[in-house]
Amino acid sequence: xxPFYGDGLVHQIISKSKLEKLTKNNxxxxxxxxxxxxxxxxxxxxxxxxxxxxFCDYRDYCSIIEKNKINNNINxxxxxxxxxxxxxxxxxxxxxxxxIVGALNVESIFKINKKLFNLKIFGTxxxxxxxxxxxxxxxxxxxxxxxxxxxxALPTSSYFCSPKNMRIFFKKKGGSYTxxxxxxxxxxxxxxxxxxxxxxxKILHVVVIQSxxxxxxxxxxxxxxxxxxxxxxxxxxxxIISIFMPTFFAGPKEAFLQxxxxxxxxxxxxxxxxxxxxxxxxxxxxxxxxxxxxxxSLSLNIFKTKEPKICTxxxxxxxxxxxxxxxxxxxxxxxxxxxGKFVRKKIIQRDFLKLDGMLNPxxxxxxxxxxxxxxxxxx
Length: 379
Prior knowledge:
This protein is of the alpha/beta class. The protein has helices at 16-22, 35-46, 58-67, 114-121, 130-137, 163-173, 188-197, 218-231, 252-265, 287-294, 340-349, 361-368; strands at residues 13-14, 30-32, 54-55, 90-96, 99-106, 108-110, 142-150, 178-182, 204-210, 238-244, 269-272, 301-304, 309-311, 317-318, 335-337.
């Protein structure tokens, strides 16, 4: 089991009485959170973002933008920011969906250079980039400081795992553990990667990331993975857990933050594939793998995988380098990548014939039984 990233586990979960004590001087003022803010609050306070102890202050913000580091000199790639119109320092209660969920000690109030932020985090100021579009809509005022989460405000998903709970489990079981993160269902490309990794390790943990922007509703991802585990006799080899993480649209820098979270959970290895955390065509196929060559403060191992391709003739899958010859049937036919966007599109169109070889027959049957399929969740 790998050590926590940075200075050890951050665990800032408090009782209602503790919250009342912290915020007794500022009960009139409440900071409202959106879903991404709430997710970031949870991740800070349960230790998924360790060693971060709160929303970034101006000092940490500048350090991340300029050097990809936080002030204790370890690598960090994305500032965790809180947008607010509040112009007052001190302890304040945090509200999400009409409920008080925690507290924030506002220690820093600042503005940012949005164009510089976009270039440093997204690598572009192109308005077609979803991250750039989101930043443009934000008011240019941010607050930072140490956060606290009410124990009653923890996520209730049965799949959700915190670093504390995962590490208790890993310590009890012993051994080495490997993670594969996804927001997607298990199409045949991912299944091929799973089987490839399971030749190296005994157990693979699929970490389903729940976000504001969904490729599929989390319920669908969980159900389809459970079907694969049951029907393909993989219950002892593939385990399903979940974390929450905003979609930052930051490509390689988002991939790096995911790996920090996996190290804090206690994993020894993490799988980074083609176009990991990719955004449209803004980043190269393997750009998210290259970032780990330059930022080296992580202690877990990165398993880098190539793009799985399917033969249009025999329907077998491989990591073949050549796109015009199958290594199985030697057919001079085209090998094509298994694109999650294509799979999702054909499911929505109910064009299941086009998914032959790209989606497990058990999952095709699952989606055929659904009269309606909406890949976008309501927030």
